[in-house]
Amino acid sequence: MKTTLCILLACLLFFSAGFLTLGAAPSGFSTSAEATETQTAQETEPPTAQDAAEQPADAYLAYRLSLAPDVPYTPFAYENNPADNPKAMADILINPDAVFGFSPSPESTRLKEYADALDWTSPKAVAEARQQRKEYHESMKELYRMIEDLLAEAAPVEQIARAVSRRRNELRLESAEDNPEDLARIKKSNLETYGDELGPTADSLYEKYGSWQKVLEKALGTNAGMDACLGFYDEYFELYDLN
User: Fold this and answer.
1) In angstroms, what is the C-alpha Rg of the chain?
2) pTM for this structure?
3) Which of 15, 100, 169, 182 has the highest CB neighbour count under 10 A?
4) Domain range summary for the chain, segments of one domain joined by +
5) Of the candidates 118, 80, 96, the residue with the CA atom closest to the CA atom of residue 227
6) Are 162 and 151 within 8 A, CB to CB?
C-alpha cells in the first residue's frame, strides 16, 4: 500500500491510542500557494522538441498545441509506464498516435464509452478532457477534509468509509453535471460495472473486499487507465493498486 494511504489507515487503526495525524495528501492534491506558483512558472513556456517528452503533461500539451498540423512531434513518455500496470491496461490500449500514448479500449467495461467520445489524437480535444478531469481530481481534496473531520469526531472506520464512498460517487457525477453526454456515459459505465448508475455502494464494496479499510481505499482511488489517457498517470501513481 502506498505511503499516503498507509498513513491514513494508521490514523484509523490507532485513533483511540492518540495517534491522530492525517498524512499529507498525495502530490496531486497539493494545495500550497508555493506549489501552484511553481507549476504555473513551469507551464509558462512550452518545451522544445528536444525535451518535450520529459516535461509535465500540461507543458507537453502546450508544446503540442503550439505545433501546426502535420508537423512532426516528440512523443510523450511517462516516468511510470502504464503498460506495466495490468489493471490499467484492462481499460486502455497503447496508441502511438494518441496525445499521451494511450486511449480507452472499446472492449473495456469501464471505459468503452470513452473510446470514441473524443479524438484521442487531437491535442485540443485531449486538453479539454484533461481540464475536466483535473477539476474532478481537485474536487477529491474534499474527501481528505471529510476524513479529517470524522477522525476528529472519533468516528469508526465503517462510518468514515460509508461517508467517503458516497461522497466520492457524488463528486464523479457532479464533475459532468454541465455535460449531459458525459454524464450519461458515466452513469452507463457505472451501471455496467457496478449495477448502479450512481456508482458502487459502500455495502457492495464491503461484500467484495470484506474490509471497511479497503472500502475507504477504493473511495480514494482513481482510474489509472483514464489517468494514463489524459496525462495524469505519474501525478497520481501512488494511488494506484498495482497488486
Assistant:
1) 19
2) 0.75
3) 100
4) 56-239
5) 80
6) no
Any idea which residue has 501513481 for its cell?
Answer: 237
Residues in the chain: 243
* Structure-block grid coordinates of residue 184: 450519461
Contact criterion met (CB below 8 Å) for 226 and 126: no
Which residues have C-beta within 8 Å of that of residue 53, sequence separation ≥ 6? 60, 74, 75, 76, 77
Angle between helices 212-219 and 157-174 (to 10 degrees): 20
The dihedral formed by the CA atoms of 213, 217, 219 and 225, expressed in degrees to the nearest 10? -150
Residue 19 CA to residue 17 CA, distance in Å, equals: 6
Of residues 126, 76, 122, the one with CA closest to residue 101: 76
Per residue in 113-171, pLDDT tens? 999 999 999 999 999 999 999 999 999 999 999 999 999 999 999 999 999 999 999 99
